Amino acid sequence: MRKLSGHREFLQKVEHGLWKVFDDAEALPAREDSRAFGAMIESRIRSSWKSLCSEAGAKTAPDSGRRAIYDVALEYDGKFFGFDIKTKDLDNERYSDGGVCSVHNLLRFLANSKGIFVVVEFSHRKAPSDRGRRRLEHICVVPFHVLPKETYRIENLGTGQLRLEHGIFSIYDNIEWGRSIFDFFDFFTEKAVEHYEKVGRDAAGRAAGMKRFRENGYIKF
Questions:
Q1: Average pLDDT estimate for 179-190
Q2: Which terminus of the chain has a lower count of CB atoms within 10 Å, N or C?
Q3: Measuring CA to CA, which residue among 75, 70, 64, 55 is closest to residue 14?
């Protein structure tokens, strides 16, 4: 079974390297909205990724490309790690960007490519001095497959769009670091099946409603 094994220690090195990249964490420009702020974070990581990988003892992987489920990647201990960069606004109760990827793309990466998908969450809030600045509070670097089960949500888009119900820092103490990828597959595929079955029932109901609308002469929908 593919387990996390010693990779937790390695990911802690990556987390430490990310803090070094953001040594001005008390004075990050707020930017015009959360999307622009996230883009700034990602840009700074990309520009420092090669040196960060070197310091962590890893090999930089090629650029992710537009269709990949991750933003940056590396190779370590014979494994391919794809990192999805997210931001969490602590001044706002809702999760800033819980979108992840489609169910099918996730499973192709984990099962077919044998990759390790990692969520990197930067949580931030308004700096005490304000002046249009944000203070970086936490950086969490966690493999996607070890998150608490209640964190995963599937929405009815395409083959099923994955979202995270909670910010990573808020559920950090409940992370199941010892969970294997196959343990993840066991419960996640069941969750996906339940989602698809519900979508099928809903679609059948909508089709039946459309038929009744037609049969009743389009009087009332």
A1: 94
A2: N
A3: 55
Can you give the pLDDT at residue 5?
55
Token pair of 21 as six digits: 């990249």
- Rounded Cα gap, residues 6 and 73, in angstroms: 18
CB 73: neighbour CB atoms within 10 A?
Answer: 22
Structure tokens at 8: 């937790």
pTM: 0.88
